[in-house]
Design goal:
Shape: flat
Helix content: over 70%
Mean pLDDT: 91
Largest sheet: none
Structural class: mainly alpha
Low-confidence stretches: none
Radius of gyration: 15 Å
Strand content: under 5%
């Protein structure tokens, strides 16, 4: 369970982040035009780099949330 102090600290970090809005907008536009690209998945590679992949997903999700003002 997330504690209120942890959540407040995370919100503060996101507030202070420098957002690269043009890059986020370009990626968003590409997704709108082309959809999500298909990739050949290497399960061994995914398991090996699991934490890095999850961190990148979290980062991109935060960018899209910021960009879309959700």
């Amino acid at each position: 369970m997330i504690h209120a102090n942890d959540l407040q600290a995370r919100v503060q970090q996101l507030t202070e982040r420098t957002w690269d809005v043009p890059a986020i907008q370009a990626r968003h536009q590409k997704l709108l035009e082309s959809g999500i690209p298909r990739k050949a998945l290497d399960w061994h590679e995914i398991i090996t780099h699991k934490e890095h992949i999850l961190d990148r997903i979290q980062f991109r999700a935060e960018e899209y949330e910021y960009f879309s003002r959700n």
